[in-house]
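anyone seen this seq b4? input:
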Amino acid sequence: QVQLVESGGGLVQPGGSLRLSCAASTSIFSLYVMGWYRQAPGKQREFVASVTNNGRTNYADSVKGRFTISRDNAKNTVYLQMNSLKPEDTAVYYCNAVSAPLGTYWGQGTQVTVSS
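predicted toks r here
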């Protein structure tokens, strides 16, 4: 069982920045593909970004050029740097860990609100 704990959410003005963190309780963190998803009120959860164990990244078109995902395998932590935030980025952001043989895990989520 892997526990994922997100932090770093909050209220920010349009155009501002936030950095989300997700700490994983596993000594084999490097075996997981790590990702971020988000869910806005009344909408389905959607993919935001992912990073493989060797650092290959993938982004949703809506966040390309504004968000950056990274991981620190020594700290069992994945990050999401969010710049140029827009009101439509408002959502609960969830951390995700996936490994084909080991399973899929989700964090509890952290609220990001972009508003003036």
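The chain has a mean pLDDT of 95. Residues 40 and 91 are 4 Å apart (CA to CA). kinda curious what u guys think
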